[in-house]
Amino acid sequence: QAPDSFPPLRSEAAVRVLRGRMKGIQGHCNSCYMDAALFSLFSCTSVLDSMLFKPFPLCDRNVQGILRDEIVNPLRRSGFVRASSVMHLREQLTDKGQCSSFTNAEKDPEEFLTLIMQQILGIEPLLRLQSGGQKEQDCYCYQIFMDQQEDLVVPDVQQLVERSFLSSDLKLVEIPSCFIIQMPRFGKEYKMFSKIIPSLELDITDLLLDSPRECCLCGDVATLECS
């Protein structure tokens, strides 16, 4: 355990600490969905560090302490987290949640994030979405759904998000404080994309509801949108 707080890894430090053998979060007993989510959320960014420290209204301090001291701090300090630490968190999630299989079964990352953010820590939803002018929906992450598209062989995240929003007729009601995106799901037998290129920046201008945008013909403020 690492009782002190460590900042997220940046640039050369991230490469030095996280690259090589015995680095990252050790997998065990179908923990890959949680390992990947925790690594993405905390290794190199502080956007969600409030999860580690802030006394939210429903916050379970025991779970918060395990997440901070046994997983995030060791990951940032030495680049390695033991499987037993993740299992400790999974056992607590099993006790706090309504599902008894968090310690042995593979789960959808969205199920894990909703449980720990909403039920255990009591964090307000991170995203507000609207579909086809209907009622707004609050959620913690966005999962990309889309049909196979032959012109996308090695897509980047920007392309996937834009096409997914278009196909589902979705808009962001407001600029999110944190935009967690789950890539297209695949199983052992089928992969929609063999590779996805990370977009280091994400342009959400066209995804925002009622956001002033430039007309592509005259340059003035647009009044109509063609999907």
TrEMBL record:
Gene Ontology biological process: protein deubiquitination
GO CC, alphabetical: microtubule; spindle
Chief subcellular location: cytoplasm
Highest taxon listed in the record's lineage: Eukaryota
Domain Peptidase C19 ubiquitin carboxyl-terminal hydrolase: 24-204
Gene3D superfamilies according to UniProt: Cysteine proteinases
Transmembrane segments: none
Name of the protein described by the UniProt record: Ubiquitin carboxyl-terminal hydrolase CYLD
Species of origin: Acanthisitta chloris (rifleman)
Lineage, uppermost ranks: Eukaryota, Metazoa, Chordata, Craniata, Vertebrata
